[in-house]
Amino acid sequence: MPSSSFAAHAEVQSVYQAHHQWLRNVLQRKLGNACDAADVAHDTFERLIRANVREPLSEPRAYLRTIATRLVIGRARRAALEAAYAESLALQPVAVEPSVEHRALILEALEQLCELLDTLPMNSRRIFLMAQVDGLSYAEIAQQLGLTPNAVQKSLARALVHCYTTVYG
Amino acid sequence: MDGAKLLRPHAPEAGRVDPKVLRQAADWWTRLREDASDADRARFEQWRRAQPAHELAWQRLTALTRDVASGVAQAGHDVAAHTLRQAPLIQSRRNAIRWMVTAAGVGLGAWAMGEAGTVRRITADLSTGTGERRALTLPDGTRLELNTASAVDLRYTATLREVVLHEGEILVTTAQDAKGRPFQVRTRSGILTPVGTRFVVRDLDDGRALRVAVLQGAVDVRSLNAADAPRRVQAGNQAEFSTAGGYAPRPLEAAASAWTHGMLIADELPLAQFLQELGRYRPGRLACSTEAAALRVVGAFPLADTERVLDMLQDVLPVRVRRYTRYWVSVGLA
């Protein structure tokens, strides 16, 4: 559809001209750093292009701010994850030094797992980790958390349903 | 990066599964995870074959748990267990957005990096992000300076002026209160009562200890370890108090308040300790190899540009700085 993509392109361009500098200023105030602000602003417009907007945006600044906020949170999470990963490597009794490439793959996997678990309530999340990562039995989990094994099983089942919904919608 | 997607939907074209069927599948899955009887297994097989939707739900659920297990195996079990427990401190997207809004609303330029303290910093009255510093004057004239990654609550009542340091480090310059209310600083490990003074308090060891450095006047410190008697630290001295019951006084070091001038001062500081200090001012991890840990660092370094400080290290010490990612830097022997 060349005509609609042309329209989308023109829209992005006009939004860019009108609001790019504003967005950078907002981000710089928020992040306190010009480089990060430029990066996030760039990614925001990239998202906007990919979103393939067909009609003029009625509230372009609100829209840009929403995308940018999501991106900033994503970066904060990524940084937190990398820090936690690095810390856990450092805690290993035997020095582990995965290659840069291997690290990237592992971080990618961990990030997806984090996202999967992110919306679980705190308790089910703990139970899920104890069962599926630590491999503990219901009885062991129950003992540690002061629950009955039956309650642990039910909670794990609910967590699975929750995870399923995250993947399949 | 989508090529490496771990959690791929299984048979996405097969459409939605009825939530009730899904709950049954999850119930079976969790039951069969542990010592199911033969009778249970037989009933399960019956359920599974009863409808195609049952089989689909079952396949998807097992694919999901298999993917989780393979992600865990890929990272290494211990690493995954630790990382997944530590990382996701920004609990939900909604909370995170609320936090962004709040932070913008009170004019904080900072966004915390999701360390253990993030939540404390989000909810505190005053806070700074990693690498940020703030100075302000309270209504009674007391001046506070917050160092990097610090969080403070103000509890001013009719009878008491209390500053609660949740984490991080502050410089306090007290003022005489017009209403004559006493002033104190509370940390997670002790209570400090200044006597007309200027001092730095730092929360240490994840709240289990505190360090006070007295620039003027004196400060009385009551450690939360009940066995410890209150101690007075005079101007020109600094001391650490631990809830385990430790008290280590020594002469005031220039390094204790150098941050208020934007500097990090190292006087024969082991590299590992230097990097730990520097790491407070930048997001992510700053690691030091064991071989390089004992090298001594001397000098005054600008906190505003930690990247430059790392480059400077390479000029003065036989080390190489490896940058794996922006948030992950390691210093080792060259």
Automatic annotation (TrEMBL), chain A:
The reply to whether Mitochondrion figures as a keyword in the UniProt entry is no
* Residue ranges occupied by any RNA polymerase sigma factor 70 region 4 type domain in the UniProt entry: 112-163
RNA polymerase sigma-70 region domain mapped to chain residues: 16-80
Q: Which UniProt keywords apply?
A: Sigma factor, Transcription, Transcription regulation
For whether the record's keyword set contains Oxidoreductase, the answer is no
Q: Which InterPro entries match?
A: RNA_pol_sigma-70-like, RNA_pol_sigma-70_dom, RNA_pol_sigma70_r2, RNA_pol_sigma70_r4_t2, RNA_pol_sigma_r2, RNA_pol_sigma_r3/r4-like, WH-like_DNA-bd_sf
Q: Name one GO biological process term.
A: DNA-templated transcription initiation
Known NCBIfam families for this protein? sigma70-ECF
- Report the family membership: Belongs to the sigma-70 factor family. ECF subfamily.
Protein's UniProt name: RNA polymerase subunit sigma
Automatic annotation (TrEMBL), chain B:
Instruction: Give the highest taxon in the source lineage.
Output: Bacteria
- Indicate the transmembrane segments per the record: none
GO MF annotations in UniProt = sigma factor antagonist activity
Q: Name one Pfam family in it.
A: DUF4880
Q: Where in this chain does the record put each FecR N-terminal domain? A: 23-64
FecR protein domain: from which residue to which, for each copy?
A: 125-219
User: What's this protein's name?
Assistant: DUF4880 domain-containing protein
Q: Which organism is it from?
A: Achromobacter spanius
